[in-house]
Amino acid sequence: MHLLALISIGGKVEQLGDNQPATRPGFARAVYYIFAAGCCFAHPAQAANSNGEARVTLNEGVNITKNADLHFGNFAAGTTLSRFRLTPDTDTLNQLSGNAVSIGGTPTAASFSAFGSPLSAIRITVDSSNINLVRVGGSDTMRVDQFRLDGGNGTRNRTLSAAGTVNYKVGGRLTINPNQAGGAYIGSFAVTIDYQ
Predict the structure, then answer these.
(1) pTM, 2 dp
(2) Which long-range contacts (CB under 8 A, 24 or more apart) does 182-186 make?
(3) Contact 7, 55 (CB under 8 A)
(4) Which tens digits make up the pLDDT trace of 8-22?
(5) How far apart are CA 87 and CA 47, in angstroms?
């Protein structure tokens, strides 16, 4: 295994390998060369030593906890294809098309909390573009798609707080088919967090 160090010098990157001494970092080396060139006629060249230091920051992984499921509420099926959007910022259910009717229940966006290293940058991704909800005890389905995160236009890039946490919500669009069979419909979707 080779241990490599990257040293930035005014936009230039040098890579140091096992066989190259890292006793003089790139910036110190550049200064030394300029000094030696300017004074080489007045004084004999002398060797100089300095010690390098290696550092690494290892972020702990990010853990996710689900606080609430995505719940669209209760509906009476219509005779036309109907679509409803659940907005995650406000838990508001809006009818987009069709003649199905929302008849109660409590529409709620899915809610999650992430925990990790304070002030870490993360990127949240809903892994599916669409899922099918399947009727319990049957095979009828309804589709949920257009998943969106809260935070205005579904901001995927977030930063953990100084305490190492961030909360976020997920909403989506529900499609109810014409004359949809009655019953409870259940499905699942995955949320992934990448962190730096």
Answers:
(1) 0.69
(2) 182/77, 183/135, 183/136, 183/137, 183/138, 183/140, 184/135, 184/136, 185/133, 185/134, 185/135, 185/136, 185/140, 185/141, 185/142, 186/133, 186/134, 186/136
(3) no
(4) 222 222 333 333 333
(5) 68
